[in-house]
Specification:
128 residues; 9-stranded antiparallel beta sheet; two-stranded antiparallel ribbon; 11% helix; globular
Length: 128
């Protein structure tokens, strides 16, 4: 199953607590909590380009499965990390945050970010 496509955020759980824990300023948390971000994924074999647009903020990361890449985090920091693919899941550890992106079916993308005992879960539906 290919990850390629455009997905719009449908629901999220744990946003505010997670963003506070990673140090995002309150004004940005307040602005971001109701925005339905759009994730666009381009997959070409083991190479991925992921663009997440949240209002005016655009975050783009490109990586190849199993190879070290510079990944930009939610706070704008660049971190060297290796993204691994396990079946229909992409998994990466950025600092102390574990990110698992799962293509549940052809139309549903679930991204779970874990920091200690805090969990931020985003569910997005394919729009293109």
């Amino acid at each position: 199953m290919s990850f390629s496509g455009k997905y719009q955020l449908e629901s999220q759980e744990g946003f505010v607590d997670f963003m506070k824990a990673i140090g995002l300023p309150d004004d940005l948390i307040e602005k971001g909590k109701d925005i339905k971000s759009v994730s666009e994924i381009e997959q070409n074999g083991d190479h991925f380009k992921v663009t997440v647009t949240t209002g005016a903020k655009v975050l783009t990361n490109a990586f190849t499965i199993g190879q070290e890449a510079d990944i930009e985090t939610l706070t704008g920091e660049k971190v060297k990390a290796v993204v691994n693919k396990e079946g229909n899941k992409l998994k990466v550890v950025l600092n102390k945050i574990t990110s698992v992106t799962e293509l549940v079916d052809g139309n549903t993308l679930v991204n779970t970010l874990t920091l200690g005992n805090l969990v931020y879960k985003r569910t997005s539906k394919r729009v293109a």
